[in-house]
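ESCALATION

Customer reports they have been waiting on this structure for their group meeting. Please prioritize. Original submission:
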Amino acid sequence: MNNNIGQEQVTSNITNVRNDDRLFVTSSAFDSKTHLASTKETLSICTDLIKISSIQQKKTKSFKLSNVIKSLEYDEMQRMSLDSFHRMLHAEDICERAGVEHVRQKMMTSLVCLFERSFHNTYEEYIFTDVHKRYDLAFSWLYQEYVYANGYLTPNKKKDFSKYDNILCRLLEYLQEKCDELFSRLLRSAPLITDNALSVLKQYCQDEVKEDVFFF
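Update from on-call: job pushed to the front of the queue and completed.
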C-alpha cells in the first residue's frame, strides 16, 4: 500500500515537472517572438528615417543670394535715392542740434557729385532758398566738384572741369543778382576761376549800379 502511494507521488512529481517544462518553453518562445518583432519594427523605422533623410538631402539646395533677391530697376533706384536725399535735406535742424551738421554736408555734397542732374537741381533749389544760411553748402559742393575734376579720388582719371565750371557759373549768376557780398566772397574762395567765370565777372563789372562793390 505504501509502495503504491510512493509510486503515485513520484509519477505526479514527474508529470508536474514536465508540465512546468512545457510552460517554460512556451514562455521563452513567446519572448523570442516578441523581441524579434520589436527588432523588425525598429529596423523598419530606421530604414524609413534614412530614406527620408536622403530625400531631404536631395531636395536641399545650396543657398545663393542671387536666388532670393531681385535687382531694382533704374527708375526705382533713382526714386529711392531722391527720397533719401530729400530726407537728408530736411534733417538740417536735427543735425545742427546733434552737432553732426558737418557730416550731413559731406554726405550731401558727395551724393550730388556722384549722381545725375536731378540731384543738382534739387540741391541748388535748397541752397538758394536761404543762400546766406547755406552758403557753406554751396562752397563745399563747388570744392568737392573741383576735387573730382582733378581726379584726386579716381586714379588715372582724365581731368574734366566742365561740371565744376557749370556749377561755379550758376552760383555766380545767382549771387550777382541776389547778394553782392557772397558773389565777391565766392570769387575769392573758388579753387579755380574758369574762363566762363571770368565772363560772368566781366558782365558784373560792366554794371554801373554795382561798380562801387569792392572784391578785395
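Sent to customer with the following note: The first helix runs from residue 2 to 59.
Escalation resolved.
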